[in-house]
Amino acid sequence: MLEHRGYVNGEWVDSEHKFDVLNPATGERVARVSNLSVQDCSAAIDAAYLAQKQYAKWTGKERSQLLRKFYDLIVEHADDLATILTAEMGKPWAEARGEILYGASFIEWFGEEAKRVYGEIIPGHQRDKRIVVLKQPVGVVGAITPWNFPNAMIARKLAPALAVGCSFVGRPAELTPLSALALAVLADRAGTPKGLVNIVPSLDSAGIGKELCSNEKVAKITFTGSTRVGKILMAQCAGTIKKMSLELGGNAPFMVFDDADIDKAVDGAMIAKFRNNGQTCVCANRIYVQAGIYDEFAGKLVARMKDLKLGDGLADDVDMGPLINEAAVEKVENHIEDATGKGAKVLLGGGRSDRGGTFFEPTILANVTSDMIVNREETFGPLAPLVRFKTEDEVLDLANSSEFGLAAYFYTKDIARVWRVAEALEVGMVGINTGHISTEVAPFGGVKLSGLGREGSHYGIDDFIEIKYLCMGDI
Ligand code: ADP
Fold first, then answer.
1. What is the pLDDT of residues 217-261, one digit of tens each?
2. What is the spatial distance between Cα 70 and Cα 79, in angstroms, rounded to a whole number?
3. Where are the alpha helices (DSSP H) in 366-465?
4. Fewer CB near the terminus (10 Å): N or C of the chain?
């Protein structure tokens, strides 16, 4: 499954131009991947356009059966897919395997849902009228995905697209194209019709992005990545008024109130902060702890963080791999330097690991304040900044003071506070007494600069369908 060529119109497309995919744990080359061009991308769009016309005629059950086969193949090959994922991205193998199963769960869930994309009959507004609402696939879907979940971000977009009758042209991040190509291998084996699924690996992110956004045959763009690039894509889509789903940056607050179960809050913080080495858009980025329990919470978190084992994700018993690249390391260093310069105190870690490369020590900062960069920008690394707060109103103001609004977490045992805080938070997702919120059955997505649309759940279907109403008269 270690495929290095692009997948266009059911064929594996090579190119004389190649780019290297490196293992971030070792710096070694994993593969030389075909660097497809904008012309290849438009050929993929043409193929997807034709394939979708035929595929739209399939019954829900036929689409469901295709996705079931695809799902079964992914699960059967989960170990190999995890090895490819770890090799190109660095996360520990067990976590990579978890990602494969998480991605597969979207294929399974949306495959089941393919049979249930119901329309509606609305009582007519006149005696001779009947009103029928159809739900139809939007058409060709263009997808652009990031490197932090090289499998799941593709799967999460591909699954609803295929479930409702759309076709797909995906461009995976240049750092991690192999997981997407391996998925294409399995989609092909599952019997996906020619042209329905296309994967275009390319170094030319801007060129391919522009083609997907401006080509009239593409009906929808679904993107996961930074707010900066999301804005570029949105502007580029204006010319053809495309539907868009954007899963952009976050800056998740994680709040622990005095009445919380502290041990469980520490467990939650470990997951919400250190999953994927802090490199997820829903990672806890700002940890607010109420004054009465601040010292106890900090002490327990430090103790747990001391147990984290860094290493090559392909070795046994590793909790955290390397960061994705040197730029990621420099960003964490910059956040620490800025914070300590303004009075923050390092309780643990604080710098590069002596393993070298892009390994970074799990770090915890105390006495963090709102004027520090770490509080305003997503760190995307293993850095836990602790902020002390006194009242609920104060922490809500702090939590909502961000331009981002993806996820938030809080720990309390007070049910009235649960409702008050959950309703007041300006985010799309709230973890209450849990640090883990991602599942295929719930709507994932954000508000403010964190994006548009939802992935997962029946709400995730809506993003891939168009509504058409039929007004039937003379009855
Ligand atoms: P991240 O910080 O997660 O890498 P980016 O937004 O930079 O977030 O990247 C997400 C995806 O968007 C990657 O596949 C990247 O190659 C792609 N990308 C970057 N710049 C552009 C662009 N101008 N147009 C389209 N895609 C882009």
1. 999 999 999 999 999 999 999 999 999 999 999 999 999 999 999
2. 16
3. 373-376, 392-400, 415-424, 457-462
4. C
How far is it, in rounded angstroms, from Cα 39 to Cα 309?
45
pLDDT at 88: 98
The amino acid at residue 32 is: R
Whole-angstrom Cα distance, residue 389 to residue 59? 56
Per the DSSP assignment, residues forming a β-bridge with 171 are 144
Calculate how far, in angstroms, residue 77's C-alpha sits from the geometric centre of ligand 1: 28
Interval between CA 172 and ligand 1 midpoint (Å): 9
Q: Counting beta carbons within 10 angstroms of the beta carbon of residue 388, is it exposed (0 to 12), middle (13 to 18) or buried (19 or more)?
A: middle
Separation between Cα atoms, residue 232 and residue 300, nearest integer Å: 43
Q: If we measure between CA atoms, which residue out of 332, 244, 259 comes closest to residue 293?
A: 259
ipTM over 0.90: yes
Whether 402 contacts 287, CB under 8 Å: no
Tell me if 70 sits within 8 A of 190, measured CB to CB: yes
Q: How far is the CA of 203 from the centre of ligand 1 (A)?
A: 11
Find out whether the beta carbon of 204 lies less than 6 Å from any atom of ligand 1: no
For the CA of 148, the closest atom of ligand 1 is 3
Q: Measured from the CB, is residue 206 less than 6 Å from ligand 1?
A: yes
> Ligand 1 within 6 A of 232 CB?
yes
- What is the CB neighbour count within 10 angstroms for residue 393? 11
CA distances to 78, 163, 198 from 100, in Å? 6, 19, 19
Helix (H) or strand (E) holding 287: strand 284-290
**Model pLDDT for residues 133-190, shown as the tens digit of each residue:** 999 999 999 999 999 999 999 999 999 999 999 999 999 999 999 999 999 999 999 9
For the Cβ of 150 lying below 6 angstroms from any atom of ligand 1, the answer is no
C-beta 225 within 6 A of ligand 1: yes
Among the atoms of ligand 1, which is closest to the Cα of residue 172? 14
DSSP secondary structure letter of residue 241: T
Beta bridge partners of 246: 223, 452
The Å distance, Cα 380 to ligand 1 centre, comes to: 15
Query: Which residue do the tokens 């998925």 mark?
Result: 183
